[in-house]
Each structure stands twice: as C-alpha cells, then as structure tokens.
TrEMBL record:
Residues 135-234 form the OmpR/PhoB-type domain. This is Stage 0 sporulation protein A homolog. Transmembrane segments: none annotated. The keyword Oxidoreductase does not apply. Residues 6-119 form the Response regulatory domain. One of its GO terms (molecular function) is phosphorelay response regulator activity. Keywords: DNA-binding, Phosphoprotein, Transcription, Transcription regulation, Two-component regulatory system. It comes from Desulfosporosinus meridiei (strain ATCC BAA-275 / DSM 13257 / KCTC 12902 / NCIMB 13706 / S10). Residues 135-234 bind DNA. The modification 4-aspartylphosphate is found at D55. GO terms for cellular component: cytosol; protein-DNA complex. May play the central regulatory role in sporulation. It may be an element of the effector pathway responsible for the activation of sporulation genes in response to nutritional stress. Spo0A may act in concert with spo0H (a sigma factor) to control the expression of some genes that are critical to the sporulation process.
Amino acid sequence: MLERLKVMLVDDDERIHTIVEHLVQKEGYDFSYAADGEKALQMFALEKPDLIILDVMLPEIDGFEVCRRIRQISNVPIILLSAKGDIVDKSVGFNMGADDYITKPFSPIELTLRIKAIFRRASLKEKSTSSSKNEDSIVIKDLEINNKSFEVQVRGEKVDFTSKEFELLWFMAEHPGQVFTREQLFDNLWGEKYLGSPGTITVFVRKIREKIELDPAHPEYLLTVWGVGYKFCD
C-alpha cells in the first residue's frame, strides 16, 4: 500500500484551518497542523510533510523566518499564504525559498490546483530519478545541471536549489541563446495561469545568479537582455 502524501498547514486562523483541512482530506492527503511558527518547526521533523502551506503572519516566529529555517535543512515544497499581495512581500517570500505564493482571501479550488501541481511535479521527479535511462544533463563551462537527479554542480561542488529555481535554470539552459521575457518565463514556471507578477522572475534570477555565478553582478551564464528579458549563454 502506497503511503499517502501529507500536507502540513501552519496558520493561526481557525477558519483557514477548517477550510484547508477539509480540502486536503477530500483530495486524499494526510493533514497536520500547527498554529504558530515555533510549533511548526518542532512538528516538521516529526511529521515529515510532503508539502507545507505556511502563513506569513504568525505568532512567535513569522512565516518568512520559518520558511528560511526549513529551507536550510530541506527542499520540501512550501506555499506561502499572506493577506499582502504586493510584489515586495512576495519577493521576501521567494528570497526565503518559497516555491509558491497565494494571497488571502483565496479560492479553495485555486489552492487545490496549486497543491496538485506541486505533487504532480514531485511525481515526475521521482519517476525520472528511478529511470534506468542515461542521465540527462547539461554541462556548460563549470556548470553541470542534471535533470534526472535534480542536482546542480558549480565548479565541482553541489549547490542546493529549490524546485522552482531548478525549473527555471533547467528551462533556460535547455534553450541557450534564446531570449525570454519575464512574462514568458513566469508562465512557464508555474505551468498554469497564475495571479501574480512577472516581476517575481527577477527575484529568481538573482537567487540563481548568487548560486552559479562567480560574480553575480557580471554574470556569464544567466544574462540580461536589456529591455527584453533574459537568456542563457550560448
């Protein structure tokens, strides 16, 4: 019997708790819950969730800090919840390592679709890593990107990437020399129509450059095409 996927919600709003628990269990996932940041960090190691839905405004420790601490030890997918929808707030979340962001009040249907999309991508990763086919990798200069093991090595050293960072890097590296607008990259990264700002791509590009470039201010891999967007080096 296959083990059921587990979703952990971290939110001190009882109404949100009720809504999310209902939709998660309706989809056949296990559910766990923490009402504050301190409890969430304690529960994380015990519960080992496959996905975390994390409110930004929390008692004790806020969601941004919880996200940052979890990201230091795990690449578990994290969806941030926030009543704030401005790009500054979202930029902070993505900088802390969040994979997705949804603004309150949200549609339960939309949240369900986001959860399914994340688990669908995770399933595809598992299938690819268990495949007996030759590893599918891209090697350019001192950078190696492996789409089977979902690993990135820079100058021989493994570098950790969140799932969204990896997806963006792989997509760009698959299309060397091709220029993409932020809107095109944004649509590709989430896979479905998403109510957000393409400016989020700027945050991801900066994070990736910090991990792969010797000098992020003067990149040699992920290049800016001024007035248009970005391209990966030829």
